[in-house]
Amino acid sequence: MIWLRYSAVFLAVAIGVAQVVRLLEITKDEMLGSAAQIMVPAMIAALIEGQQYVRRHAGLPGSSRAWRFGFIGMGVATVLNVALAYAGPQVAPEFAKLAIAAPGSQQFVTLLLMYAGGYLLANRFFYGIGAGNTLSRDKAREERGGK
């Protein structure tokens, strides 16, 4: 369930932001896309999963659990990245840049490894940030009277 929700959030953010940027580019006649569009979906998905962890376990995930999440999330995000790359530039233009390189080529592997490294770090740290913020918020609510 966790990876299904993670994937749904990742895809919704990636495609949603890509479509908003495309619309703005059409209406403003300017190029607005950036490589940040590739990492932001993983960051938001990891934040949400960190929040969900606190809701289920009422505590912070340990370091090993957070790294495990980071590595599995890296794999899921990388697969989704490749899927979006070959879905075409109409779906997610920034992701389609990976499709320019021939599959299996040095350029393709280099780009994929760079994305995977970014996904690992984003997932690991944003998972912890989401959990920490949720735990702090819940403690503050309890101190204010359970609102």
3D structure, described in words:
It is a single chain. With 147 residues, this protein is mainly alpha-helical. The protein contains five helices and no strands. The longest helix is centred in the last third of the chain and has 39 residues. The chain is globular and about 55 Å long. The relative contact order is 0.17.
Query: What distance separates the N and C termini?
Result: 29 Å
Backbone shape: globular
Please outline the major beta sheet.
Answer: none
- Helix/strand-derived category reads mainly alpha
- Radius of gyration equals 17 Å
Low-pLDDT residue intervals, each spanning 5 or more residues? none
Please count the beta strands (DSSP E, at least 2 residues each): 0
Q: Please work out how many helical segments DSSP would assign.
A: 5
Strand content of the residues, in percent?
Answer: under 5%
What is the string of helix and strand elements? HHHHH
The level of helicity is over 70%
Mean pLDDT: 91
Question: What attributes does this structure have?
Answer:
147 residues; 0% strand; globular
Q: How does the SSE layout of this entry go?
A:
Blueprint lengths: L1 H27 L7 H22 L5 H25 L5 H4 L9 H39 L3
Helix pairs in contact: 1-2, 1-3, 2-5, 3-5
Describe this structure in a few short sentences:
With 147 residues, the chain is mainly α.
